[in-house]
Amino acid sequence: MFKDISLDELESVMKKAWDAFAVYRNISLQKRAAFMKAIAVELEACGDALLHTAMEETHLPEARLRGERTRTIFQLNSYADACARGEWMEISIDTAIAGKVPPKPDLRKTKTALGPVVVFGASNFPFAYSTAGGDTACALAAGCPVIVKAHPAHSRTSEMVAGAVLKAVKNSGMPDAVFAHLHGAAQSIGEALVKHPYTKAVGFTGSYGGGRQLFDWGNQRKDPIPVFAEMGSVNPVFLLQEKMKDDAADVAKMYAGSITLGVGQFCTNPGIIIGIKGDDLDKFMTALSEEIKKIPAAKMLHEGIAKSFAEKKESATSQTGVKTIIEIENNDPANNAAPVINFTSGSNFIANPKLHEEVFGPYSIIVACADMNEMTNVAKNLEGQLSATLMATEQDIIDNKELLEAVKNICGRFIINNVPTGVEVCLSMHHGGPFPATTDSRFTSVGADGIKRFARPIVYQNWPDNLLPDELKHSNPLNVWRTINDVPGKA
Amino acid sequence: MFKDISLDELESVMKKAWDAFAVYRNISLQKRAAFMKAIAVELEACGDALLHTAMEETHLPEARLRGERTRTIFQLNSYADACARGEWMEISIDTAIAGKVPPKPDLRKTKTALGPVVVFGASNFPFAYSTAGGDTACALAAGCPVIVKAHPAHSRTSEMVAGAVLKAVKNSGMPDAVFAHLHGAAQSIGEALVKHPYTKAVGFTGSYGGGRQLFDWGNQRKDPIPVFAEMGSVNPVFLLQEKMKDDAADVAKMYAGSITLGVGQFCTNPGIIIGIKGDDLDKFMTALSEEIKKIPAAKMLHEGIAKSFAEKKESATSQTGVKTIIEIENNDPANNAAPVINFTSGSNFIANPKLHEEVFGPYSIIVACADMNEMTNVAKNLEGQLSATLMATEQDIIDNKELLEAVKNICGRFIINNVPTGVEVCLSMHHGGPFPATTDSRFTSVGADGIKRFARPIVYQNWPDNLLPDELKHSNPLNVWRTINDVPGKA
Question: What's B298's DSSP letter?
């Protein structure tokens, strides 16, 4: 549909982004925020035409896409507010003490933008994690120009969104090259983008293979750069005994919806459900099967994802000791994915790491453990996760400290009696777990703290007040929170 | 002197550290802080015997070592206070909104320790960046067990400090393996430590070669880990014209001291001084030579460093267009390093990256630029730095915006009319610059914000209040700063 950018053109894009960086990073927080809000307005102004294009390209239903655009607009607006409030700069000031030996100088620390950020569009979030999505919003808030590589599965949607952003760039009087949009299906384009000397950080949401490749390229540079890749996860769910005694059927109903939401195409999809074998787990499985039966086959985002789902599901199903509890028949050739629930034992699961891998789609495996000890061992054998969930009574939690510790160790979001799908966009959200959930568990890609990925501290030592950046001036003209001599406040 | 640890022993050390982690990370902030303060007390209790051992091993004078121990004690105490205050956890809470569609769950974000941290002792800071130094203090504050690899150049000093730490471990009732100390001159030990599955982060202060190697090992793992390496820097100093018109001689005096402080063995040593050629710069060089003449040759930390200084100085001096302004004669065979000041032109400097490299020791090169434009180009051609300094009047700063931007772009600490040596230990300090100054410019190794290197956010979703970690409970029993529904405070 769209031609790949040439390496010469890419060179020119990066040079312009670098020049724009020198201007944009000095634009005030308020103006940056207004610019981000202008993008939100233009995104809304794209109207239903944008939704229809996205429907054609992604096969996602209109209601989902409408909701996702609303979320994207909320991200832009709320990160803009956070940008202007300035807490993300974590300002701290230590005032001079001339009488100290040696004299203590005046030190004022704020944050400054890293530089041009390359954002790779995500196939499963054509709005919220693509062209004007969370990574782009965070980078713009931090003061970084953004270069978006469109996801080839929704390149027309990406073009339309890029058009909206560029309108906002113009109307807000921002440097033209604060935002660039390009196409590059060839791997060489991705590599050139990550390795370009003017690229100072990368944002990515997608598969482990893709994320790891970008991360490795970023680290192989002469000057390594931070590559924040969110690479999905299996989001284990632990069913504890007292809870299951009363609520097996309700829990099953809740999870049938979560497993199949959006044809299972979420990085927070619950891919592994761990219980203790016995009547309650049987009851859960029966109820889950009944619920799953009601859910029809559907069409995945693109052929590549459907093919990968079929292969990974096949591979998981063919492992020793795995049986399929339910697989929905797919009678309509227009669809290419139907829900599947597999089953295995705790010991079998622990012994076979193949079963720990994500099967991206409407799939989950139920792991039946002999006892709590085995369940704890399952937790200890899992890799890093975006989220982990306990379905548990308070007594269950109190009685199972070792499991609790093992689970805490592997997840970025620790949930009790909720489903992991549905990631609230707010400051307290953390969407970043130990590797391989993300490449750096200390950062998040959801919530305004995601801005911190793209800025670095800088301390001004012994500067005259009038030449300091506004947020550091004695009179606090921007009225931001600052920690002065170890005391936080707005003084 | 001490035998390298065997790989079997190392395995056992790491296993014990991992087990200690499960206990230590749940120990309250107050108890962690008390433990850190107990280390400080034991360090003081080592008395002059510790200083004398360090003097023998490092050739640093007693006054310097006494001062460095005082600094190390201050680090332990002040990071302990910061640990207990808890601002480093960056707590935020978003309360539930049941009526929202879909309902917004209760979300409470705090930080949790990464896991066992390996700290490599630094040759040039036998106390402050070694066994119980800044990295160790930060990791302990974050809730991480620490495994220290002693620097072979001061292994007896390291043993004594480790003994003090282990006393505090015992007296504070901490798990024994919260701290381990080992020797390993062989590269294979370093590699095994960084690549061990139970190692979750690394702290290092030292050379570019060493830091880059650890960083690469950390990223080559199946599950990459953060390696924070502070790899030194040349800390450029820019002499602006109006300032130099009046103050050339005073500036020279200030810098003669800074260049030669501690035989130049600081990562903040000013290695490059950039001026505009003419009478004022000549006056500066004359005065600098006069001052340097007063400074005798001295003995460096160890033979390896002295050899490297001699080689790098030779290599820099032999480059085309470089001349030596002053080199102090070394007549005492007990010494192995004497101050050297070289000189070159701006165009020559820009053309030859060899001249941008750090010569670790009492060395600096003066770069005479044709004009401000050439000075700005020098700044644009430099790599990442811990610090950069302008010697400038206010008018100089106002008149040279482009230089200002270019300098801001390459440094973590931006100084006006001070020397870069002397790094104040306080919250506002930032000791971390763009690569290659450090491996991640978003973190610092000086100041309590250094704790953030070793902890990751975790969010608790929908938890009953009584089961939450104390810092997240509704009543705020620890009385810590928290941002609730986007508003910071202590409510």
Answer: B
Nearest CA-CA distance, residue A373 and chain B, Å: 17
B426: Cβ contacts below 8 Å, ≥ 6 apart: A94, A104, A107, B78, B447
Nearest CA distance, A111 vs chain B (angstrom): 9
- Residues B214, B259, single domain; the answer is no
B85:A486 CB<8 A: yes
A112 and A126 part of one domain: yes
Strand partners, A173: none
Q: Do B315 and B384 have their domain in common?
A: yes
Torsion of CA A241, A246, A247, A249, to 10 degrees: 110
| Domain co-membership, A401 together with A445 | no
pLDDT per residue as tens digits for the range B412-465: 999 999 999 999 999 999 999 999 999 999 999 999 999 999 999 999 999 999
Exactly one of A230, A358, A374, A471 is catalytic; name it: A230
In a domain, B433, yes or no: no
Measure A467 CA to nearest chain B CA, in Å: 8
Q: Do residues B371 and B222 share a domain? A: no
Indicate the helix (H) or strand (E) that contains A142.
helix A134-142
Q: For residue B20, tell me if it sits in a domain.
A: yes
Q: Residue A342 belongs to a domain with what CATH number?
A: 3.40.309.10
Residues comprising chain A, all counted: 491
Q: ipTM beyond 0.90?
A: yes
Q: Confirm whether B426 is domain-assigned.
A: no
Range of the domain at A365: 237-416
Identify the three-state secondary structure at position B274.
strand
* A412 contacts B457? CB cut-off 8 A: yes
Q: Which residues in chain A are contacts of B112 at CB distance < 8 A?
A: 408
| pLDDT at B285 (0 to 100) | 97
Contacts of A449 in chain B (CB under 8 A): 90, 92, 457
B489: in domain: no
What separation in angstroms does the CA of A293 have from each of A303, A310, B52?
A: 24, 19, 78
pLDDT tens per residue, range A430-479: 999 999 999 999 999 999 999 999 999 999 999 999 999 999 999 999 99
pLDDT in tens, B118-134: 999 999 999 999 999 99
Q: Could you give the number of structural domains in chain A? A: 2
pLDDT in tens, A267-323: 999 999 999 999 999 999 999 999 999 998 999 999 899 999 999 999 999 999 999
Is A394's CB within 8 Å of B460's CB? Answer: no
Q: What is the per-residue DSSP string for B440-478?
A: -TT--SSSGGGGGGGEEEEEEES--GGGS-GGGSTT-TT
Rounded to an integer, what distance in angstroms lies between the CA atom of residue A360 and that of residue B147? 39
Active site residue B267: yes
Assess whether A333 and A470 both reside in one domain: no
